[in-house]
Specification:
The chain has six helices and ten strands; from the N terminus they run βαβββαββαβαβαββα. By secondary structure, the protein is of the alpha/beta class. It has one domain: Nucleoside phosphorylase domain (Rossmann fold), CATH 3.40.50.1580. The chain has a five-stranded mixed barrel with strand order 5-8-7-6-9, surrounded by four helices. A hairpin with a 4-residue loop joins strand 9 and strand 10. The protein is globular, with a radius of gyration of 17 Å. 45% of the residues are buried. Its EC number is 2.4.2.3. It holds the Pfam family PNP_UDP_1. It comes from Collinsella stercoris DSM 13279.
């Protein structure tokens, strides 16, 4: 195998830690590296999908952008699991709150990920696959939040292929099934992890409520996302 085994990632074998935090925005990956990691080096800038490895409280951790939507995170997470020996990927992203119990600034952990995507068709299963998080990561994230005085709301999220939905009532229909929030990547990440026999968790900060129009002001988003980032970073430490 070549030392850089994929055209989408400039990392060499050994450049990436066993645990990777994966925001959608590569600039958020840079923010995490700049503000939380020590001894940082840039391992990828192919397509400007920035990736960094450093240490957090003395333990190796990597952070890399995953892009928008399931095709994008599907590529990057697959390659991390299959080509770079990554064991755990924690998505850290934003979401729109659906359930009435969810408010802006809340931190949500996706225990499961409903989806309107056809991503699972590739597996040719004789039924419907239910993408779920790795329980140990989920349990540790809830405990880490509690230790920081943060309630992590746990439940189903919706991973949608559509940011601009032609049916104006589509998102609201998921509310009756108790879905907490909508985002665009968790289901593909969970399926890739299941197929590879690896671990995954999706942590989300609620940035808006699409059914009411409420939205978190831009200048407050970073401080709210910080809580989610710190919970995710704790998962890179020994249990």
């Amino acid at each position: 195998m070549e030392s850089t085994p994929t055209p989408h990632n400039g990392a060499h074998i050994g450049d990436i830690a066993k645990t990777v935090l994966m925001p959608g925005d590569p600039l958020r990956a840079k923010y995490i590296a700049d503000h939380y990691l020590e001894d940082v080096h840039l391992f990828n800038e192919v397509r400007n999908m920035l990736g960094y490895t450093g240490t957090y409280q003395g333990h190796p951790v990597s952070v890399m952008g995953g892009g928008m939507g399931m095709p994008s995170i599907g590529i990057y997470s697959y390659e991390l699991y299959e080509f770079y020996g990554v064991e755990s990927i924690i998505r850290v992203g934003s979401a729109g709150g659906i359930d009435p119990s969810v408010h802006v600034r809340d931190v949500v952990a996706g225990m499961g990920a409903c989806t309107d995507s056809n991503f699972a068709a590739q597996y040719r299963l004789p039924g419907t696959f239910a993408p779920i998080a790795s329980y140990d990561l989920l349990e540790r994230a809830v405990a880490a939040g509690r230790a920081q005085g943060i309630e992590v709301k746990v439940g189903n999220v919706l991973s949608s292929d559509h940011f601009y939905q032609d049916d104006p009532n589509a998102t609201a229909t998921w509310q009756k099934m108790g879905v907490l929030a909508v985002e665009m990547e968790a289901a593909a990440l969970y399926m890739n992890a299941a197929r590879a026999g690896k671990k995954a968790l999706c942590l989300l900060t609620v940035s808006d409520l699409p059914l009411t129009g409420e939205s978190l002001p831009a200048d407050e988003r970073q401080s709210s996302f910080t809580q989610m980032m710190e919970i995710a970073l704790s998962l890179a430490l020994p249990a």
